[in-house]
Give the backbone structure.
Amino acid sequence: MKNENINLLLLIRKNKRSHKLIPVNLQLFADSGDKTEKATPKKRSKAREDGQVLQSKEMTSAIVLLCMFITLRISGKFIYEGILDLIRIFLTQSPSVEGLFTINGMIKMYSEVVIAFLKISAPIFVVALLAGLVSGYAQVGFLFTTKTLQFKFSKLNPLSGLKRIFSIRSLTELVKAIIKIVVVGLIGYLYLQGETINVLNTMDMEVVSIAVYIGVTATNVAIRMCLAILVLGVLDYGYQWWEYEKNLKMSKQEIKEEHKQAEGNPEVKSKIKEKQRQISMRRMLQDIPQADVVITNPTHYAVAIKYDAQTSDAPVVVAKGQDYIALRIREVAKENEIEIVENKPLARSLYETVEIGGRVPPELYQAVAEILAFVYGLKQKK
């Protein structure tokens, strides 16, 4: 029966002759299942294994682009001179290359051009790669998982696709994209507006100077845009953290279930403990025939003592028990003709201070020795 359909009828006596039934929804008293609790370490570890990690792609892309344009700005002269040398070699030396117009000659020529171009652009690509790795590691750490690459049939469901398109997350991404475009466009507009006079002065410059000015201006604008995107990336990281924590939240029932799984089912644990007690008791009862004497309370406690001077320098407790177990110890002792001696304080002291297989403490040596001497004397008479 569903909880929402269950009503509790409270009988309220208005007076001696009239009664009134008031319906009360039991769902108000039930656990709503709302996820209000912080995620446990186990839940976080499981989410990480599944590829659900805290990461801002906006911040990563902003850091990579910023490092690339800063590298381009610093090594711009090196790249410019390298490209000029490459064009000069390509235009002046290519006609003198033997077999240029053959397939092998063309492959050789263009291979050299590509290799030279890669050497020129290598600093930018290396910096971009390192920036991406460092940024990703700083946010996520080292993580290797293939679960995010696994094929899921739910992705082919058109209804699920529509839900993702018209979800709050998609709307949030749209708002972030619009803000990014507006901020980047505004920064570019304001910077170029301040360069209006310099742009007009390019009419009197040489072609090389114009190219240098365009390159410097473009990198300056790009660096400022990347800084703005980085600020937006920091804000996006905060939003991603809030959303990540929200998605990981658990209900109180989920936490209880997790604790049950971690600690084990109470019923199963009790059965295991009961089985262990049975095995331990069976083993203990099997050791009683080796005992020299059983000291009793006489009914509440029973402790079986064994002394072998060749294997131990003190008497050893081979079995002990209380109530029912004490009764079983006495029964086994009688079956094996082991002497049973009543000594209430000694039996209680041994039961409370010595574990099974443990040695008798020195303060109880004299009392135990007297009983053992008495038992040995009985055995000699028999």
Summary: The two ends are 75 Å apart (CA to CA). The chain has 13 helices and six strands. The chain has two domains: 56-144+159-246, 277-381.
